[in-house]
Design goal:
homotetramer; alpha+beta; Alpha-Beta Plaits; 15-stranded mixed sheet; two-stranded antiparallel ribbon; 5 helices
Chain lengths: 294, 294, 294, 294
Amino acid sequence: MDSIVIEDTYAEAFKTKAAYLLITAATKELAYTAAVEATGFATSFIGCPAEAGIDEYVDVDKTPDNRPGYSIIICQNSTKKVEEQLLNRIGQCVLTAATTSVFNLLPDSDTQTNLGFKLSFFGDGYQEKIEKYDKTLYKIPVMSGDFLIEENFGICDAVAGGNLYIMAKCQQSALTAAIAAVNAIKSVPHVITPFPGGIVASGSKVGSHEYSFMHATTNEAYCPTLKDKIDNSKLSSDCNGVYEIVFDGLTQEDVDVATQKAITAIKTIPDVQVISAGNFGGKLGEYKIKLINE
Amino acid sequence: MDSIVIEDTYAEAFKTKAAYLLITAATKELAYTAAVEATGFATSFIGCPAEAGIDEYVDVDKTPDNRPGYSIIICQNSTKKVEEQLLNRIGQCVLTAATTSVFNLLPDSDTQTNLGFKLSFFGDGYQEKIEKYDKTLYKIPVMSGDFLIEENFGICDAVAGGNLYIMAKCQQSALTAAIAAVNAIKSVPHVITPFPGGIVASGSKVGSHEYSFMHATTNEAYCPTLKDKIDNSKLSSDCNGVYEIVFDGLTQEDVDVATQKAITAIKTIPDVQVISAGNFGGKLGEYKIKLINE
Amino acid sequence: MDSIVIEDTYAEAFKTKAAYLLITAATKELAYTAAVEATGFATSFIGCPAEAGIDEYVDVDKTPDNRPGYSIIICQNSTKKVEEQLLNRIGQCVLTAATTSVFNLLPDSDTQTNLGFKLSFFGDGYQEKIEKYDKTLYKIPVMSGDFLIEENFGICDAVAGGNLYIMAKCQQSALTAAIAAVNAIKSVPHVITPFPGGIVASGSKVGSHEYSFMHATTNEAYCPTLKDKIDNSKLSSDCNGVYEIVFDGLTQEDVDVATQKAITAIKTIPDVQVISAGNFGGKLGEYKIKLINE
Amino acid sequence: MDSIVIEDTYAEAFKTKAAYLLITAATKELAYTAAVEATGFATSFIGCPAEAGIDEYVDVDKTPDNRPGYSIIICQNSTKKVEEQLLNRIGQCVLTAATTSVFNLLPDSDTQTNLGFKLSFFGDGYQEKIEKYDKTLYKIPVMSGDFLIEENFGICDAVAGGNLYIMAKCQQSALTAAIAAVNAIKSVPHVITPFPGGIVASGSKVGSHEYSFMHATTNEAYCPTLKDKIDNSKLSSDCNGVYEIVFDGLTQEDVDVATQKAITAIKTIPDVQVISAGNFGGKLGEYKIKLINE
């Protein structure tokens, strides 16, 4: 464990737009079910309609309605696209979910979208605008009772593409370290891990050597099964597994904190050899998330 | 419990297109994680890019690679749209997931799409076409090892929109009955429950009385908080909660079996009053899924 | 919701002895698995060898070894019985669990038991006493690597028998309220809910009218199916479900906080009618946990 | 993967007594919660009051009351001790659990214990003996409604101590293989994996070289951190992790099937080196569970 090398490099992150919402429900499990559906199919801007994930559990004495909740973050590269995603994801995956309500966690953001107003037309004339919990809400009669949603939802700048590479002697050691890293990041507020289980098994490079129509292809320099077949492998001869973890945060500081906490967790797993990160020499993004801070 | 009324009506289901795939992984939990992400944000064709869900757990002696797996179903209303969804959902949510492989569960379907071939370009020239498990697969080197995916995937006709309405004295009784019904349907092969937790809290009617731009709005006749305010309520005075469950199957028989099994389960929950279903007099679909069979 | 009656009564709690430990592991899930097994079969002193439960998740930057962990509490009515339970539960359910370590969360308690020393004999001469994380630990070689456990574990006074009764129009409404209450209590540090899911479906009275050999029997005054058959029913004619929640804390203040938080959560569930609590006029215990504070 | 050595040896299993029961509830999750509590603190006869575990999920059309259920197995080394465990575990962990009922899955066993009759005294005179589902049941009024339990429960001979050792290059690879093996065994009917997560991190030998008072101590020959310090290590120089899995079945055939299925699953995990099993030359038990069948 003592011999893990932390490379003196950085993850290259980039600016995005994000919404930050709270879903509450009668029980913790019901809130979780809605949050999972609303943030599904949202691992990467390449190929998914959004990057999204669950931020954290919010205890009953910190929610407006004293019910258990989960905060979620939904990212896209423009305010308009975030608005589209909100309309579809909250309309189809949360309005439809049992016992849920939805609240704005960015009330002070300059950009506000009237998602609640738009969704209220589902009420077909029976919806009501009300004041409750010191907020302006819409109350929409539905089969299960009344659905409550705040009128406005903030959209803010955010930082996508925080990442770490984990290299290990065995594939399962790298994977366990990735799981431990995601466990650690989950307790950092304002940070999500959009990939399945928070983990990327197939980390990519930008573009392609072979196929001009591909925007992203396998990062062969980090592929264990290619290490003896290519000249540019960055893996040592006894590395047999690499996993990447990817995370987005509301600010660069959030991503920095998540990075350090993930490194702390990774270092606890036996047979991990190297911790590194993906960057593209500044081609992709404007944020440098350093692994080693002076 | 004895006094539950099962209305002599039918759910109106409609034809769709579907892919039916198997995701395997090193452990049951890793396979599940990938399956959840790949079928997320997929509750309804109105507003979601697909209807999708997990079909069932597939035991290690029934998978090609002897690893635990989950079968999933992804529906859209044309072959082309299913192909698009496959490319994005498998490419972004399964290729990226730890230790996964993907197999075709519709090898005999007349329509086959070469999803594995298309995704293999991610290998940037390092991919290989191989024969294994009596199948044609692509082996794509990735950071974690090699990703295996079958070359072709079948697309078939399927039946969407199976549904039941559950009315009860208390909202939580209707909800528990809906959960029990989803529990029951989960063991019917070839059937998915695409909504969050399989349940719809906000069952809708087609169109709107008030807003011409809305394709679906609240089904006010079944809204408990409106029952004393409108003339067309279908709820008894002591009904305080209604939940809908929605399910899609590969064939009408699958949906029929699921319907009967769900009814059996719903009948076990105290304080349920009525079981009904949603139909639109034949406007929406061609299949009549009867609640009571002669 | 507005009409819930909170009875001006108290739960009668009693003194017990408790151990308070931290189980860490490579991943959150592995730590949880060990904690569940170690605290199983431990709902009540009547019939179980202990009352035990998981306290809370402990984040990687708050554990000695930077791995995810769960704190657990194990109660019995004497120091000696707590020591016996520790030896068996930690020896059989945590030493055997994958990747775990165990730490003392009561280092300042006057009573310390040398559990780590006792378990170290499992090492059959290969065990070592070491200093690590500013603690005295035993390192025991096992098949999976080395098992680490602190030498001493504190035992303290604690408060058992905190409870609330929840009465509702439907059984499922009372149950959902009980689940919401347990969700709320789970975030109160130093409090456990030892029954299955934290909930008691069969709340009891002390002793029996009919059978002198029974120490506890059904509390018929709160049984919905008896309300029309007995004279002493405490249920209104439209109450059809009652659930009790039971919780133990390290101090009376912990139990007081849990009680108020649970009440807050219960009040959010529709169709709940009354919140009360069980007491025995001071026969059972020395602590009065009031529902309503002046 | 191709080079895994399966040693031509056997696991030594021994005769025990077992009860085999079905717990049903309103939902799958509620049934699971009760089953987990009832089978907790039950990893090994050495130090635990029983060996117990969940057998499998039982679908709504295979349970007497059409509710979802889990079958469980509880083992002890005499009929009397099984009876004691049933009384305490079902009385404290299932009678107390929300919405549960309990049924006998060994109605044809020669030995039947009247557990339901004994527990019915909890009803304090309000219990009733009834016929339902073609069975003789007790109906006990409780706070949540009525608790139903069958009158008699069978006790049969069973086979404990099925096991496999998994050796791998990295600890996490052995662990993942153990998890995959447990996943595989879970679908074998009549077989339980009583340890935490089904896995033993600290496999033991009978007795001790150093301490006459110890009945079981670490199996130093399989401890990776001792392999360079002792003469009798059975591990190769590049083995860094060993996990054992332990399972009990109702018959030897059940344990044989589980063994083969587990081996099939283990073989799918990279970096596993050897599969073996624990035996004691016939000192412990009468059953030889061979790894390789002619």
